[in-house]
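Here comes my example:
=====
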Amino acid sequence: MNALSKALLIAAFGGVFAGLAFADGVEVTHVEGAQARDIAPMGVPGVNAWLQDAVSAESDDKPLTCGFFRIQKSDEPLVYDYDYDEAKIVLEGEITVNDGTKTVNARKGDVLLLPKGAHITFTTETEGMAFVCGARVRDSA
């Protein structure tokens, strides 16, 4: 089972896996109440957006970091250039994503794959929150 599969199982089933070990003997990391924790502002002028890493697989060759992203209606869009692959699962509200070719209005329960090399513009008419998993080291977004 690869790191992304493990992270998605933890995200889908939460505390069910707390304290259990996978076949390779590596224990699951459990962050109780992670979604309710404060999310750090991204610090982009005119943009109401927050990102907070929650868990990370400490691997030099295949990094994986997961956390939470939140965006509220803003004066400016959030523009982000991906130098890693990332998946977002919308947990609340809606997040509009534009890759320069296509616009997607992602709502609760929707999954987005944002590939390495993508130039993405994020907006929302209200607000949205997503669980994110990216092939990057912790605190590097």
